[in-house]
Amino acid sequence: MNAITPLTAVLFPGQGSQVKNMGRDLAEEDSDYMYWWTKAEAISQQPLREIYWGGDDQDMADTRALQPALTVTNLTLWMHAAKKIKADSFAGHSLGEYAALAAAKVLDVEKVLELVSLRGKLMAEAGAPDQGMTALLKLSQEDAEALVVTAREQSGAELIVANYNTPGQFVISGQKPALEAAAAIAKEKKGRAIPLPVSGAFHSPLIDEAAQELKVQLLKADWRTPEADVFFNATASTEGNPEIIKDIMCRQMVSPVRWIEINQTQYRGGSRTFIEIGPKGVLAKMLGQNLKGLDKDWTGTNLDTMAAIDEAE
User: Fold this and answer.
1) What sequence ranges are listed for the domain Malonyl-CoA:ACP transacylase (MAT) (predicted)?
2) Which of 281-300 are b and which e, b meaning 16 or more Cβ less than 10 Å from the residue's Cβ?
3) Ramachandran angles phi, psi of 282, nearest 5°
């Protein structure tokens, strides 16, 4: 058997990974990075630095500000890290996929900031009182998928598995009656159902109207061939054709995030160094579960500050 050449996979986190003062050290050290914060504020018309460098947690969770702020954090961290790290592939979880597109030069950074600002606005407006999302813990993928089918049948309401995060953590998205039925079934199966603090059924067909509005702008963007592989949420595979990438991204907002498969496909393709670029390190922690049972010949690291990047070998 031929030895593989170990590859480096760079991962970008999505919503829920925001922290106070994210990206601040870089921006205050280098005006090139501060430029992107001011650009993101101008595009989103949100006081991002005021919110994330001095606001409260409630303001930080507002998706209209969160999406451009986390994206500019991820991308300025990557701009700094790219001076010493060569990425063979990129992937981003949900919102993080837009940072991956910019990092792979599929889209310009400015265009990505425009798109995530619009995405945040549309997702905020797409919220409805009868919709939501729930995390399922301690259930297998088979049980989670069967639970969704049963809850739909019992309630007559819409429900899908929206995020395949780890083999023991899934997120379901849909209408409240179905979510309530799902929670009851999860309890019967000795699992846990934790309602998430969101007001929309994201990554489900219920927000198709918002997805169609975003699609109008996605179709106008200048899509290019990736300079490194990008693993896409909706397909868990790579794609090099800009026209097909555009189509995949037009479906992203209403399609499940297939993160378990992404990590496993990256590993099977030769990725052995996984580096999460962004706050909190959630994706780096998921690797242990998603690559369980495979040879422990890989490493997972989170680089979330300028100092962490500068100290990395």
Assistant:
1) 11-306
2) bbbbebbeebbeeeeeebeb
3) -60, -45
Output the pTM of the full model. Answer: 0.97
Quick: pLDDT tens for 10-20.
999 999 999 99
190: tokens are: 């000795």
Second CATH level (architecture) for the domain 7-126+205-311: 3-Layer(aba) Sandwich (3.40)
Q: What is the enclosing helix (H) or strand (E) of 9?
A: strand 7-12
Report the SS3 class of residue 145. Answer: helix
**CA angle (30 as vertex; 29, 32 as ends), nearest 5:** 160
Q: 273: which 2 tokens? A: 């160094």
102-116 residue pLDDT tens: 999 999 999 999 999
Q: Is 231 helix (H, G, I), strand (E, B) or coil?
A: strand
DSSP string, 155-176: H-S-EEEEEEEETTEEEEEEEH
Catalytic positions: 94, 203
Q: What are phi and psi of 157, to 5 degrees?
A: -115, 165
Which pLDDT tens digit goes with each residue over 147-166?
999 999 999 999 999 999 99
* CATH number for the segment(s) 131-195: 3.30.70.250
Using DSSP's 3-state secondary structure scheme, residue 133 falls into strand
**Mean pLDDT, range 90-112, rounded to an integer:** 99
CB 65, CB 51: distance < 8 Å: yes
Q: Are 214 and 118 in contact (CB under 8 A)?
A: yes
SS in 3 state form for 14-80?
A: CCCCCCCCCCHHHHHHCHHHHHHHHHHHHHHCCCHHHHHCCCCHHHHCCHHHHHHHHHHHHHHHHHH
CA-to-CA separations, 294 to 18, 209, 275, 298, in angstroms, rounded: 31, 41, 18, 9
Q: Counting beta carbons within 10 angstroms of the beta carbon of residue 46, is it exposed (0 to 12), middle (13 to 18) or buried (19 or more)?
A: buried
Q: Do the beta carbons of residue 241 and residue 202 sit within 8 Å? A: no
